[in-house]
Amino acid sequence: MIHFVGAGPGAPDLITLRGARLLAEAGLVVYAGSLVNPQLLEGTPPGCVVMDSARMTLEDVVEALQSAHDRGIDAVRLHTGDPALYGAIREQMDQLDARGIPYDVTPGVSSLFGAAAALGAELTLPGVTQSLIVTRAEGRTPVPEAERLVGLAAHGCTLALFLSAGLLDRVEADLAAAGLEPDTPAAIVYRATWPDQQVHRCTASTLARTARQAGITRTALVLVGRFLGEGFDRSLLYDPAFSHGYRTAHAAPPCRKGPAEAARDE
């Protein structure tokens, strides 16, 4: 069996229990060497063949997986974060399907959630935003016309930009064209959960300058939105005056309004 496994965002103890077990049983591991923490490979058994895919083509990877299958060896294709996000796994799975080789997928913790944890942030705040847009700036890899950043940013949702740390001048221009205020909170999280993690808070208009000052050009997640600000509403789920299937509403002493509620009353 071929196992596609999400390695998590970087910290070796953020791989799932299932992912760690599959590594411990693998006879072959093909891992994304430029992004996956090599400490994870310490969990492979003696005799396991380990291959770095950084210099491999799709054809090289599939041939290695085919060879393991032909020899009756379980193989792990180890991807960074969760392989469903910018993991390039569909093309690999299509090749395996064409060859009749079985596989499964073990999800992982995305660097998006590692970055949110580093920021101490909630991506969806009541009264601020209830939607998250995961996208990337257009670079060498094109973006569909309907998904250009200038259009997506106009929604005012939380924005999470992968693979965009080297394109922040363009990102700033697109955010401004979308109508975002220059002081819209933003952050750059470099190598979330790794020992050398960096967190840089800034604004929508200072992303490029912040990255230049920190020397960041890659391996960083960019987050933009008012969810990084101070104001939001209290959750109704835990409001004593709100009924749901597990709790009946009851009278409660007045509760201080959150900044978002207070602003609407002014």
TrEMBL record:
<keyword id="KW-0169">Cobalamin biosynthesis</keyword>
<dbReference type="GO" id="GO:0046026">
    <property type="term" value="F:precorrin-4 C11-methyltransferase activity"/>
</dbReference>
<dbReference type="InterPro" id="IPR014776">
    <property type="entry name" value="4pyrrole_Mease_sub2"/>
</dbReference>
<dbReference type="GO" id="GO:0032259">
    <property type="term" value="P:methylation"/>
</dbReference>
<dbReference type="GO" id="GO:0009236">
    <property type="term" value="P:cobalamin biosynthetic process"/>
</dbReference>
<keyword id="KW-0489">Methyltransferase</keyword>
<dbReference type="InterPro" id="IPR000878">
    <property type="entry name" value="4pyrrol_Mease"/>
</dbReference>
<dbReference type="InterPro" id="IPR050161">
    <property type="entry name" value="Siro_Cobalamin_biosynth"/>
</dbReference>
<dbReference type="InterPro" id="IPR035996">
    <property type="entry name" value="4pyrrol_Methylase_sf"/>
</dbReference>
<keyword id="KW-0808">Transferase</keyword>
<keyword id="KW-0949">S-adenosyl-L-methionine</keyword>
<protein>
    <submittedName>
        <fullName>Precorrin-4 C(11)-methyltransferase</fullName>
        <ecNumber>2.1.1.133</ecNumber>
    </submittedName>
</protein>
<feature type="domain" description="Tetrapyrrole methylase">
    <location>
        <begin position="1"/>
        <end position="207"/>
    </location>
</feature>
<comment type="similarity">
    <text>Belongs to the precorrin methyltransferase family.</text>
</comment>
<dbReference type="InterPro" id="IPR014777">
    <property type="entry name" value="4pyrrole_Mease_sub1"/>
</dbReference>
<dbReference type="InterPro" id="IPR006362">
    <property type="entry name" value="Cbl_synth_CobM/CibF"/>
</dbReference>
<dbReference type="Pfam" id="PF00590">
    <property type="entry name" value="TP_methylase"/>
</dbReference>
<comment type="pathway">
    <text>Cofactor biosynthesis; adenosylcobalamin biosynthesis.</text>
</comment>
<dbReference type="InterPro" id="IPR003043">
    <property type="entry name" value="Uropor_MeTrfase_CS"/>
</dbReference>
